[in-house]
Amino acid sequence: MIRWDADHESTAETPDLAALAALLADRTRAAICIALLDGGTWTAGELAEYAGVAPSTATEHLNLLVAGGLLAEERRGRRRHLRLAGPDTAETLENLAGLAPYRRVRIRSLAEANHRRALHHARTCYDHIAGALGVALAEAMTERGLLVRENGVELTGAGAAWLAALGIPHGGHSPAHRAHVRTCLDWTSRRRHLSGAVGAALYRHALEQRWIIKAPAGRILAVTEAGRAAFQRELGLPAEVLAPAPAAPPAPDRTDITPRRPG
Amino acid sequence: MIRWDADHESTAETPDLAALAALLADRTRAAICIALLDGGTWTAGELAEYAGVAPSTATEHLNLLVAGGLLAEERRGRRRHLRLAGPDTAETLENLAGLAPYRRVRIRSLAEANHRRALHHARTCYDHIAGALGVALAEAMTERGLLVRENGVELTGAGAAWLAALGIPHGGHSPAHRAHVRTCLDWTSRRRHLSGAVGAALYRHALEQRWIIKAPAGRILAVTEAGRAAFQRELGLPAEVLAPAPAAPPAPDRTDITPRRPG
DNA sequence: ATTACACTTCGGTGAGCGCCGAATCGTCCG
DNA sequence: CGGACGATTCGGCGCTCACCGAAGTGTAAT
Q: CA-CA distance, A24 to A97, in Å (whole number)?
């Protein structure tokens, strides 16, 4: 990594942590990244509206985020489609959010309150389940001896058998071939939910079996009647995490952060 | 998480990713955090000198970092001792550094060049081994079937046996009790080295057996003669990662970043 | 006591950057 | 072809904040 140039000056390369952090140090850019943590693809205009800034401002932010390697883009016609660069990015963002301090925000409308409630209840976190439901899943699996947590997390033999019985492929069929489990710190509850390959497989299976359904736009999940039965039967999840969101049904709007300008 | 206040205004709490990132978005504060990634404890004055700023400036930065929960402090007499808040913090910082873009820096002295070379060769990363040596260890273990990497990393049965034969406690003695392995992205090589409980146990064992020794101040490691023999015997590590740093021995100075003021 | 030292507080300065609106570019649709 | 629309560029405004030095506080050493 150390190079001597022709003029006998030497330079080296150092990872520029401050430059990367500066990308996330702005509220608008952070909101954009958190929005994209749903694992989906948003257009520039959607992100601008979500973040509550003018389209021109959003363009500048998106340029920076793409140039910095946090976001990937795809241009289709006059649209610009954005998503997170990859799983590594998503995971680091989640961990960072779990370490971040809380900030009080004002709730401006009933729709926003409902949306937020739904987010806390169950949502996607890139490729797995987060929110109260995600945390409850991880904790129930631990209580039933399917997971072991001590200085990390591991799937037990019983856990592997449980997944296999449910028909969830988890890639851990031999001692030399163990399933990849991780946890990530849930922003809303500060407790851990399941991620890694097992977390992703569980999410895909739950979607396929229609235990949960995903709101058309956004990252909100709802537990179906079949899901309530399955989660209760398989893991004995308590009723409160299986109940639908207490107020109105999850709204598909994207007013997740408080805009700094009143319209 | 949603509360209705007495005056019927509602607020909620959201993790403030931008606030946390802002702490790391400054070069000086980032340098301080990276310095503390050696897992040790530094005084405020040492950090000020390392970062190349006045003591008063360092005080302000340290106040922010402690208030933000990234650093822990201990006041002893007129000194202020700083360290990273915990393993979670260290791990997230490492991952972030692995995602960060590179920045060219000038090398100002031979001592600095040697120091940097030594850092690239072998260093601590909080509680495990990083640098070329750390990456080589992880890769050799994978080649020999002690680790399996696919969408994560896991210790194989052979890997558990290998650790046991070496007398390295790794806490994975039953199927319900598996060893905790992780990898983290090495800043210098962009490849992965071993962390998690197994990475930490390996590091502790190598120190105890004097396969490696730690420079008094800083995070530089040197491979001993015994270490060369052991790493070659146990894992067939190539000579180049076992050789001592090619130039002068690792200097204990802390000129790791380029100061912005020549004073 | 006196001196030395580690750290802190405070005031002032300068640079960086996030924001918008207006104008423009390019694509899609009627 | 013309109008609508999504995205971009640019100029200018205002705020935030990292920096230093000088003075101050409290602890340790003589």
A: 11
In the structure, how far is the CA atom of residue A78 from the C1' atom of nucleotide C27, in angstroms? 5
How is residue A135 written in tokens? 């945390």
Q: What is the DSSP letter of A21?
A: H
Residue A249 lies in a domain: no
Here the CATH number for the domain that contains residue B82 is 1.10.10.10
Total-model pTM: 0.81
CA B16, CA A188: separation in Å to the nearest integer? 11
Structural domain of B238? 112-242
Residues of B in contact with A145 (CB under 8 A): 176
Kindly state whether residue B252 falls inside one of the protein's structural domains. Answer: no
φ/ψ region of A150 (left if φ > 0, alpha if ψ in -120 to 50, else beta) reads beta
Q: Between residues 137 and 156 of chain A, which touch chain B (CB distance below 8 Å)?
A: 145, 148, 150-156
Q: Which residues of B touch A178 (CB under 8 A)?
A: 148, 154-156, 178
pLDDT tens over chain B, length 263 residues: 544 444 445 777 888 999 999 999 999 999 999 999 888 899 999 999 999 999 999 999 999 999 999 999 999 999 999 999 988 899 899 889 989 998 888 777 788 788 888 888 999 988 899 999 999 999 999 999 999 887 678 888 899 899 999 998 876 544 444 567 888 878 778 788 998 889 999 999 999 999 999 887 678 899 999 999 999 999 999 888 887 655 444 333 443 433 333 32
Phi first, then psi: what are they for A75, rounded to 5°? Answer: -95, 125
Say whether both B81 and B118 belong to one domain.
Answer: no
Q: Which of residues 206-245 of A touch B (CB under 8 A)?
A: none
Number of domains present in the structure of chain B: 2
